[in-house]
Specification:
Number of strands: 2
Helix content: 55-70%
Protein name: Transferase hexapeptide repeat containing protein
Largest sheet: 2 strands, antiparallel
Strand content: 5-15%
Organism: Planktothrix tepida PCC 9214
Number of domains: 1
Structural class: mainly alpha
Number of helices: 3
Strand order of the largest sheet: 1-2
Length: about 70
């Protein structure tokens, strides 16, 4: 079992961590539009289009193959 001094130290550490996290979350403005931050973030359009193609192929590969009225 932990002694009282160790528990106090751990509690102080946790309180500091919580205070830091609260400060970080409050410093970020929630009124900013997330879409405006995202627009223009892709610098290589060809790579972006290729990644979309990979995602589409991956999703389609997961679909059952249908021939006639039967799934294979």
């Amino acid at each position: 079992m932990l002694d009282e001094t160790t528990l106090e130290q751990r509690l102080v550490t946790l309180e500091r961590a919580v205070a830091d996290l609260q400060g970080k979350s409050q410093s970020q403005s929630t009124s900013e539009n997330w879409l405006e931050k995202l627009i223009g973030s892709v610098s290589d359009q060809a790579a972006f289009i290729k990644s979309l193609e990979y995602g589409r192929a991956f999703r389609q590969a997961d679909q059952p193959v249908v021939q006639g009225n039967q799934e294979l």
